Amino acid sequence: MSLVLANVEAGYGGDPIVHGASLTVAPGETVALVGPNGAGKSTLLKSVAGVARVSGGTLTLDGRDLVPLSPAQRAEAGAVYLPQDRNIFRTLTVAENLAASAWGAKDIARRRERVVELLPTVKEVMRQRAGGLSGGQRQMVALAMALMAEPKVLLVDEPTAGLSPLLVGEMLDMLIGLARAGLGLLIVEQNARAALDRADRALVLVDGRVVRAGPAAELAGMEDFGQLFFGEAA
Ligand SMILES: Nc1ncnc2c1ncn2[C@@H]1O[C@H](COP(=O)(O)OP(=O)(O)OP(=O)(O)O)[C@@H](O)[C@H]1O
């Protein structure tokens, strides 16, 4: 088991926002965090990344306690965070962007080859300036940049934000393809149905608490799905 959270309480220094969340992400597995706006999904993801504060419970990656580590140390340990608003350097080429995000690694060329194996379409835009790419291509480059850190588990916050409905599916399929290649994937996703259709397992967060957890396909079929997510009448 790669990433393990047990009874995690997390927030930003004031009252906790996430209360007692437990989850695991194994290599090769995709776990989706879904739930209504403001439920604490991003905060839970940030608590793994080291951007939000863990005030209770335990958080380990391959048995190593992540809580005392800085965000950079967590990335080095293998827990790599891809924030929703990840900046790419618009005036640099894609190749330069990838090199800049390899955390000073000495084996940049090898890492880049591995990233191209995982995301072959990146190769087509490698020499282009990032600022000239489409929104979907820029998302892909941001993902490729995160992969340059060689994550064991990738923490992705709303990867489909701002994408057209057609690209939502493509982006999620691409992410799940990465997980199948061996890394663990923890995704916060607004498009709950699209995520549940594809992920292996899922957790539904409401008011900072995990109210459902299980195989994604089972959660997709739950009777009170609409009520939980959209406040629809049962
Ligand atoms: N940096 C911060 N400092 C203090 N409170 C914050 C911070 N970021 C988020 N919050 C608060 O934490 C709560 C949960 O927000 P969070 O972004 O984790 O929810 P979410 O489920 O990801 O929602 P959304 O789907 O709208 O992004 C909200 O009340 C929000 O105002």
TrEMBL record:
Pfam families: ABC_tran. Signal peptide: none annotated. CDD domains: ABC_TM1139_LivF_branched (cd03224). Keywords: Amino-acid transport, ATP-binding, Nucleotide-binding, Transport. It comes from the Bacteria. Residues 3-232 form the ABC transporter domain. One of its GO terms (biological process) is L-amino acid transport. SUPFAM superfamilies: P-loop containing nucleoside triphosphate hydrolases (SSF52540). One of its GO terms (molecular function) is ATP hydrolysis activity. Belongs to the ABC transporter superfamily. This is ABC transporter ATP-binding protein.
